[in-house]
Write a structure and sequence with these properties.
Helix content: 10-25%
Number of strands: 16
Order of helices and strands: HEEHEEEEHEEHEEEEEEEEHHHH
Largest sheet: 8 strands, antiparallel
Bound molecules: pyridine-2,4-dicarboxylic acid, zinc ion
Number of helices: 8
Mean pLDDT: 84
Structural class: alpha+beta
Shape: elongated
Strand order of the largest sheet: 1-2-13-9-16-7-6-3
Low-confidence stretches: 1-27
Length: about 300
């Protein structure tokens, strides 16, 4: 390339990166909101699971922990039939939820998750931050639900993004006991000596501060993938902090907006409901998720 065009080319590259930094509002540090596909390594095809090395900055990890620290409560699990949240020995960590877009750092993390997963932010639940002390674990489970109540809001969970906020001296790996060893995987597995016995029972990811694991709980056909069974191995030494974003096939926010709007829009709603209009005239009284009806409160829908 002649000297003149090389310097022009360099000028172009520098100007573009300057503009990118300027548009993200930061002149000093490179914007952390950019997703770099070369940092993503596939660990399994059954289930489809990938690790992004350095997905979160140290600042983002520390921020999540500091928001969670004073709010932790013993973690619960959903009952398979009723969908109700209950305490269980299956899951012995402590955790809390951080409201979507709580501050600029949380919104930035949610932007990155959305870009990486190709799924809109509105399909995601609030981020759950978890702390595991020695001996604490999350037994093997599916992230998709078996009960109708939990599916009603946003449909099935399709993707989980699990972010590791600390290194863990020993144990605490996320393990997929049913995963099929792929003929070739692009991420070199951790050395056997570095893994706990629990992690050796499947394909495992060793927690490393800033790394994130993304896996699908459904096949592309939307059928639940039983290979996605996974667990958090007991922490043996040190403390593990992680943050989970569960993402659904549809909006997780839509129904909340509708529920927040739980009013009758006609003074006669109560009388009409008593006359059986909720069933006789559901288009007007009840409506649909997209177009809520005029008497949702009197029809006891919210
Ligand atoms: O923290 C983990 O390693 C873990 C493992 C399995 C978290 C979850 N599942 C989850 O939050 O669903
Ligand atoms: Zn899980």
């Amino acid at each position: 390339m002649p000297t003149m065009s090389l310097s022009l080319h360099l000028l172009f590259v520098v100007s573009i990166s300057f503009l990118i930094h300027k548009s993200s509002g930061s002149f000093l540090a490179p914007p952390s909101s950019i997703i770099n596909p070369s940092k993503v390594k596939q660990i399994s095809w059954k289930p489809r699971a990938f690790v992004y090395e350095g997905f979160l900055t140290d600042l983002e990890c520390d921020h999540l922990i500091s928001l969670a620290k004073s709010e932790l409560k013993r973690s619960a699990v959903a009952d398979n039939l009723s969908g109700e949240s209950k305490l269980s020995e299956v899951r012995t960590s402590s955790g809390m939820f951080i409201a979507k877009g709580k501050d600029a750092i949380i919104a930035g993390i949610e932007d990155k998750i959305s870009t990486w997963s190709f799924l809109p932010k509105e399909n995601g639940e609030d981020i759950q931050v978890l702390r595991y002390e020695p001996g604490q674990k999350y037994d093997a489970h599916y992230d998709y639900f078996a009960d109708k109540i939990n599916i009603a809001r946003g449909g099935h969970r399709i993707v989980t993004v699990l972010m590791y906020l600390t290194d863990v001296a020993k144990g605490g790996e996320t393990v997929f006991p049913n995963a099929e060893e792929p003929p070739r995987r692009s991420r070199t597995p951790a050395k056997e000596d570095d893994l706990s016995e629990c992690a050796k029972r499947g394909i495992a990811v060793k927690p490393r501060k800033g790394d994130a694991l993304l896996f699908f709980s459904l096949y592309p056909t939307a059928v639940p993938d039983t290979n996605s069974l996974h667990g958090g191995c007991p922490v043996i030494e040190g403390e593990k902090w992680s943050a989970t974003k569960w993402i659904h096939v549809d909006s997780f926010d839509k129904n909340v907006e509708a529920a927040g709007n739980c009013t009758d829009m006609n003074v006669s709603c109560e009388r009409w409901a008593a006359l059986g209009e909720c069933t006789n005239n559901p288009e007007y009284m009840v409506g649909t998720a997209e177009l809520p009806g005029y008497c949702r409160r009197s029809c006891k829908l919210c």
